[in-house]
Design brief:
Blueprint (H helix, E strand, L loop, with lengths): L5 H12 L6 H9 L4 E8 L2 E10 L4 E8 L8 H15 L4 E7 L3 H9 L3 E10 L4 E9 L2
Parallel strand pairs: 3-4
Antiparallel strand pairs: 1-2, 2-3, 4-6, 5-6
Length: 142
């Protein structure tokens, strides 16, 4: 992901996560932190159809965001983005990867379980301003 990708990413952010969207300023800040951040986009026919981000430290990594346009969900794009993030976490030596996912997003939770994540807790009212709960999931490096 580059700064030039932000208009398309922000469109997807609105489509997928409103009203709990990140702002363009948040993405600009994330993209400036190349030492601990890794963001990518999935493109098809020159357009961005998905995006994902990882925050990686020495002792753990976090899947910061992952999204695929509704018209292309179910095609494996999200799985490929997640696999790329997990490969980057492994490359950076992070022994643990954490994430939060909406409690009502069973499809995403299933994907994460298939990639070795397990539920370790819940965060009540995590997503703002909607107040939706999050499921906290963890994957330990094999």
């Amino acid at each position: 992901m580059t700064l030039a990708d932000l208009p398309a990413v922000m469109g997807l952010e609105e489509e997928l996560f409103a009203p709990d969207t990140w702002t363009a300023a948040m993405y600009r800040d994330e993209l400036s932190r190349t030492d601990t951040r890794h963001y990518l986009v999935a493109e098809d026919d020159g357009g961005i159809v998905g995006y994902a981000g990882l925050i990686a430290y020495d002792d753990e990594a976090h899947v910061a965001t992952i999204g695929v346009t509704g018209a292309r969900q179910g095609e494996g794009i999200g799985a490929r983005l997640l696999d790329a993030l997990l490969a980057e976490a492994d490359r950076r030596g992070a022994p643990v990867v954490l994430l939060e996912v909406r409690a009502d997003n069973e499809t995403a939770q299933g994907l994460y379980r298939r990639r070795g994540f397990a539920e370790i807790g819940r965060r009540r009212g995590y997503y703002q301003p909607s107040g939706e709960d999050a499921v906290v999931m963890k994957r330990e490096k094999l």
